Amino acid sequence: MSAHAHRELTKNQALVFGSLSDAGGPLTAYAILDLLREDGFRAPLQVYRALDKLVEFGMVHRLESLNAFVACSHKDCTGHGSAAFAICEKCGDVREFTPDDAVGLLKNWTESQGFALARTTIELRGTCKGCVASG
Amino acid sequence: MSAHAHRELTKNQALVFGSLSDAGGPLTAYAILDLLREDGFRAPLQVYRALDKLVEFGMVHRLESLNAFVACSHKDCTGHGSAAFAICEKCGDVREFTPDDAVGLLKNWTESQGFALARTTIELRGTCKGCVASG
DNA sequence: CTGTTTATGTTATGTTGTAACACAGATAGC
DNA sequence: GCTATCTGTGTTACAACATAACATAAACAG
Ligand SMILES: [Zn+2]
Ligand SMILES: [Zn+2]
Ligand SMILES: [Zn+2]
Ligand SMILES: [Zn+2]
């Protein structure tokens, strides 16, 4: 478990967030379900409902290209600007960062088109430094 | 049907690409399957195998946040730099563009981290100009 | 204390994507 | 010609991801 104690999570939300924090990396909803069976979880909806709230709170991010979820890398995070993720295809490591400059340029484009931007998905696939070195 | 005639597609590849071109927007694999049943398609693998090749050729893009596929908006396209997509959540319209400037900044970040970038997923969700006006 | 909201539990179902195996056609080498 | 190999195809079965529908319970405002 860790951080984010300032928000009162429900029991299920706390269990799901704890799983993701402990994992230190992305987990699928069904992987979380298996981790939490000993805590009484029985059905995928228990996980998905908690994840929906945690994503809404900004404490968890969804990785669209992995169909997985990851705890925000910021301590005591209650939400921040558009995040991006560098995903290593060798080792599965995920690094979160906040490319405000690139997002600004994307936002410029949407504004020039009259498109009202609500949220962004930016996921970079490749090979991390460690895996490049070892492979 | 349309364009891309310079590449020799197999029968199934041509049928799948034709469906996507005719649709003028994103389709899920199963939607394509239903469209092609009258052409003899019976199983999802027939669609997925064709889509894999079309994506490899750069003629079709996968939209991760929709679990859907869309024909490249460029005529006679055999592949191009990193594409991005603005997806209207009201009407479902998808606009493809190529934000070289923003991708350059993202690439700068990956290089500073020793991350070998292979490909990008950039999907912007929001409301298109027409839907903003009418809503 | 009653109507409303939020969270939860449970069953069943819907949607998206692959594994495994069999077969057909092209084609390159002998 | 006749194999070996590669690519594309067809089919069944299954795995993985996500939600609908309905019931119950706790929290809380009027
Ligand atoms: Zn974050
Ligand atoms: Zn790695
Ligand atoms: Zn394109
Ligand atoms: Zn629209």
From TrEMBL, chains A, B:
It comes from the Bacteria. Binds 1 zinc ion per subunit. Zn(2+) binds at C88, C91, C128, C131. SUPFAM superfamilies: Winged helix' DNA-binding domain. GO terms for cellular component: cytosol. InterPro entries: FUR (IPR002481), Fur_C (IPR043135), WH-like_DNA-bd_sf (IPR036388), WH_DNA-bd_sf (IPR036390). One of its GO terms (molecular function) is zinc ion binding. Keywords: DNA-binding, Metal-binding, Repressor, Transcription, Transcription regulation, Zinc. Gene3D superfamilies: 3.30.1490.190, Winged helix-like DNA-binding domain superfamily/Winged helix DNA-binding domain. Pfam families: FUR (PF01475). GO terms for biological process: negative regulation of DNA-templated transcription; regulation of secondary metabolite biosynthetic process. Its cofactor is Zn(2+). PANTHER family: ZINC UPTAKE REGULATION PROTEIN (PTHR33202). Belongs to the Fur family. This is Fur family zinc uptake transcriptional regulator. It comes from Roseibium marinum.
